[in-house]
């Protein structure tokens, strides 16, 4: 039990969750930067078709591409409710769920150069 003055370091002053970098991940087989970029583009092109609003998807994409401080500002400004600190699961103010795969947010541990493939 915490005292009234204690605050979880994972939350902001208004009680919303602070976002942080996603955990390292590994693709099933070594992947090149070109393949990773193609996967990311396909995700962002099709994501709005699975629900939610285009504005929130755009805000999530901008947040993923930004540094952590700017990403936090984007998320807060768009009214995104963060369930997981790494943005893998979020909600908008109407309750629509947004799920982001790790590959859109960070590099895999087994990324290889295009020349190695």
Automatic annotation (TrEMBL):
InterPro entries named among the record's database cross-references: DC-UbP/UBTD2_N (IPR032752), DC-UbP/UBTD2_N_sf (IPR038169), UBTD1/2 (IPR039869)
Region feature Disordered, mapped onto this chain: 1-32
Name this protein carries in UniProt: DC-UbP/UBTD2 N-terminal domain-containing protein
Any one Pfam family match given in the protein's UniProt record, by short name: UBD
Signal peptide span: none
Domain of life, per lineage: Eukaryota
Compositionally biased residues, Basic and acidic residues: 1-17
Domain DC-UbP/UBTD2 N-terminal: 17-114
